[in-house]
Design goal:
- The chain is α/β, with parallel strands linked by helices and 446 residues long.
- It has one domain: Amidase signature (AS) domain (Amidase signature (AS) enzymes, Alpha-Beta Complex).
- Helices cover 39% and strands 13% of the residues.
- It is built from 14 helices and 11 strands.
- An 11-stranded mixed β-sheet has the order 1-3-2-4-6-5-10-11-9-7-8, sandwiched between helices.
- Strand 7, helix 8 and strand 8 form a beta-alpha-beta unit.
- Helix 2 runs antiparallel to helix 3, helix 4 packs across helix 7 and helix 7 runs antiparallel to helix 14.
- The radius of gyration is 21 Å and the shape is globular.
Length: 446
């Protein structure tokens, strides 16, 4: 039994047919974790096995809270778990306050019958996009161990890629679900922020934080998204590629692409065009204002600094990852007027996005403009900052415009590349339906 590449639909079918059991799936997950545990900060061996056995007993009696009951899944290290501290990838909170309840999304996963196998590694306080954390053993990119897995939900993606979980739950403030999905050859979905409760989740930016899944297919993300949002799972929509109008922004998102990224993106667009999609250049000049918008700092800088100061975490500066501390303390020099200007600029960008996206079904761009960075290149702080900024550039646009987006794997000559579909706020269901159809075209054309 191997969870690698297995979809939730296939696993649910195998469970329903008696071809496997929750205990067998859970043992497969732990066998894979034992081979390389670096994706995890905490492993719940005994509770997971007990939950799997209970799931099998209930299934034998015809009782299943959902078709997906009994399937192993992982959760990022910043979700509250009853009876445990919530480290958020830090040393400071590793022995911090004990959670008195599960995060809302964790409760929903348990209610649906998923088996939680452990907490996954993450960038400290979710505040970098390449996926490094000096406090724990570093998970590497499963496609090239010399490269970063992407972040901040790096362990989440690695756990799925290595078959240690059939799906993973992460957070996405500027791309932290989609980036590691793209770097590891998986699917990552960022929902419209307001659809999923953030109760019981360590915050980075209240304005931008979203919660989303990483999994082996767009349909897996559809399933997990419905659970996270507490919504009924809608029937699979008959998404079509033919007739879709896809806009490729002329500005910002297509600038400075690594050659393999550009080649994979162009090839994917060619396949979609052959399948009947209309690929059209889209003007979105307001995107070019984003660097100037952040000249005094970002919304995340300001809100993270306020949160860390409020909690007294900055009294232990020496325990921070220096790359993270730099980003948190960048908010210290921002004034109230700077923050208000940022919120106004974001509101204007959201309004502009509504108009610019109106003629199209979706915007489409590479998820990340560069390939997964080499770990040795990230050792230099200046190069770390440059590569981290490039890694986050495209994905962070979606959070700024309050949209939703999915990253689909489109291959590449040697390393994975992600194709990002961007939809307007609350366009999640239509996006997930179209992503399934697009995914099928890309898979059969590979």
């Amino acid at each position: 039994m191997d969870l690698k590449g297995r979809t939730l639909a296939k696993l649910a079918k195998d469970l329903a047919n008696g071809d496997t059991s929750s205990r067998q799936l859970t043992e497969a997950a732990f066998e894979a974790i034992q081979a390389d545990p670096r994706a995890f900060t905490r492993i719940w061996s005994a509770p997971a096995r007990a939950a799997a056995d209970a799931s099998d007993r209930l299934r034998a009696q015809g009782i299943t809270p959902s078709p997906f009951a009994g399937i192993p899944i992982s959760v990022k290290d910043l979700f509250d778990i009853y009876g445990e501290p919530t480290p958020a990838g830090s040393r400071i909170l590793a022995s911090g306050p004990i959670a008195g309840a599960d995060a809302h999304v964790v409760s929903r996963l348990r209610a649906a019958g998923f088996i939680l196998v452990g907490r996954t590694q993450m960038s400290e306080f979710a505040f970098t996009g390449v996926g490094l954390n000096p406090h724990y053993p570093q998970p590497v990119n499963p496609c090239d161990p010399a490269r970063a897995p992407g972040g901040s939900s790096g362990g989440a993606a690695v756990s799925v890629a290595l078959g240690q979980a059939a799906g993973a739950i992460g957070t996405d403030t500027g791309g932290s679900v989609r980036i590691p999905a793209a770097f590891c050859g998986l699917v990552g979905f960022k929902p419209t922020q307001r659809r999923v409760s953030r109760e019981g989740v360590f915050p980075l930016s209240d304005s931008l934080d979203s919660i989303g899944p990483i999994a082996n297919s767009a349909d897996c993300c559809r399933v997990l998204d419905a659970v996270l949002a507490g919504e009924p799972l809608a029937p699979k929509s008959a998404g079509r590629v033919a007739g879709l109008r896809l806009g490729t922004p002329r500005q910002y998102l297509l600038e400075g692409l690594d050659a393999p990224v550009a080649a994979a993106f162009d090839k994917a667009l060619s396949h979609l065009s052959s399948a009947g999609a209309r690929i059209e250049p889209a003007d979105f000049p307001e995107l070019d204002s984003i660097p100037a918008m952040h000249r005094h700092g970002s919304i995340s800088n300001a809100e993270a600094f306020a949160h860390h100061r409020r909690r007294g975490l900055l009294d232990q500066r020496e325990l921070y990852d220096p790359n993270v501390l730099t980003r948190v303390e960048a908010g210290k020099g921002m004034g109230a007027a700077d923050y208000c200007d940022l919120l106004d600029a974001r509101a204007n960008l959201i309004e502009a996005a509504r108009a610019r996206m109106a003629p199209y079904d979706f915007l489409v761009a590479p998820t990340v403009p560069i390939l997964a960075p080499r770990l040795d290149a990230l050792a230099d702080p200046a190069e770390f900052a440059r590569l981290n900024g490039l890694t986050l550039r495209n994905t962070s646009v979606v959070n700024l415009i309050d949209g939703c987006a999915i990253s689909l794997p489109i291959g590449g000559e040697d390393l994975p590349v992600g194709l990002m579909l961007i939809a307007k706020p609350m366009g999640d269901a239509r996006l997930l339906g179209a992503a399934r159809a697009i995914e099928e075209v890309l898979r059969t054309s590979a």
